[in-house]
Each structure stands twice: as C-alpha cells, then as structure tokens.
Write a structure and sequence with these properties.
Length: 90
Amino acid sequence: MLPGRQGPPGGPNECDHWILAERGLVNRSADPADRRRNIITVTAARTQRFQQLDSVVAEVQDMLLAPLSPAEHQQLTRLLSRILSHASRQ
C-alpha cells in the first residue's frame, strides 16, 4: 500500500489492483454481469514497464554471474531450481 493512503476494503488483492490502477498499470472496470466484481486489464504502460525491468534484470544477472563458467552457471541454476521446488512444496 502507498504510504499515507488507504485502499478500498476487500482484502489484499483488491488493494493491489487499486494501487496498480492508481499507477496506470491496470484498468479496473465493473463486470457488467456482476457489478460487485471488477475486471482488471493490463495497460500498455504496464507492458512497457515490465519490458524495461526485464532489461535491468538481465543486465544485473549477467553482471552477477560473470565470474561463473557456463557449466557453473548451469549448476547454480539447477541447484536454485531444486531449492525453489522444495520450498514451494512446504
């Protein structure tokens, strides 16, 4: 939640959508079939922002993994995937 702001009632997902809509990353509209529900659609600004972030993540990843050989990189990826898989089952 944004500092000093209160989102609408309805739980964390509704607040998340409210924040994203406020930032112009999604559009919220009432569902014509059920006015109690919202339809959330992604905006072009959100797509552009994700593309920018993807580039930044790739640069940081390349920088962090530069000391590793290709084999070490693959080994690290396998180990981290294994840890993630185990953690998701907990």
